[in-house]
Amino acid sequence: MRFVTDVLRHLGVDEADEVQRLEARLTRIEALYSQIAPKKKKAAAPIRALPAIVVEELYEIFDPLSQRNPFKTVQIRSRNYLLFILYLHLGLRRGEALLLSASAIRSDYDLITGREYRWINVTTLEGEDPRYLQPALKTEQSQRQLPVTPELVALFDNYVGNYRIHSKYGHLFISQKKTPLALQTVNDIFNVATTSLSPAAKAALEVRGWAKIPARGKGSQDEREGKRWISPHDLRHTAAVLRLKRFVDSGDEMEKAIGKLDTRNNLSL
DNA sequence: AGCTGAAGAAAGGTTTTGCG
DNA sequence: CGCAAAACCTTTCTTCAGCT
């Protein structure tokens, strides 16, 4: 700025008001640009999204038909698979999934296109809840509706229709004791899945600073610092990436999807 | 930048189930 | 049937995300 006015003077644009006029305009432009200066980069945040090999293996481990599935019964397998997919695809918080109702997915017709679309209601399920730790939505604004793919709808319907254990509670996720699944049990499920990963996948996590992950059935004897188990929150971070990709892929569903997205609740990475 | 509620870790317990 | 393992849960305490 200083430089520019000096140059103008030097070039002999010495009509004072001419220089002043230019200076005023430049000042204004400078002010404008200062507003849109790029934000300072934050100190590099550790990567929380999971490596691709780990995500691929988790699909295989949770797949109810897979040889690698460590869970015993078909009921628990399909329940855990749906739980995993909800965390990975929708990026739900741990507790949010446990609040879902067995009728959380709703459909409606779009009067303009005449097509059916479906979404899932993330909200607080009213009624008695016997759990020691009550899951809760973090804020009122956490109540939202998320668009769901036909694949997810099929998975949901299959589980609810064929495998969900009947219970007097309306929750989607029910334990073998016929009560809503406890928060800790979700961790237990992911612990089992984590120990079922191949050595290669475990190595990929250790490269990222995780502690050594024990083999199935064994406790962890390793004293190294770091995370030992994949958590729903890790999937939430991974989900943000996947979600963007799916929206781009979904083409003409895009507007509908965005309409259902609560922009105030965009996932931050 | 501070705060609040959710997530996570750890330890340890009970109930249920698959399978020999 | 019997038993070991899986499934599930409580309790306490610490850490962290993300809202205001």
Automatic annotation (TrEMBL):
PROSITE patterns per record: TYR_RECOMBINASE (PS51898)
Top-level division of the source organism's lineage: Bacteria
Gene3D superfamilies, per database record: Intergrase catalytic core (1.10.443.10)
UniProt keyword terms in alphabetical order: DNA recombination
GO biological process: DNA integration; DNA recombination
Segments forming domain Tyr recombinase: 48-269
Gene Ontology molecular function terms on file: DNA binding
Name of the protein in question: Tyr recombinase domain-containing protein
Source species of the chain: Croceicoccus marinus
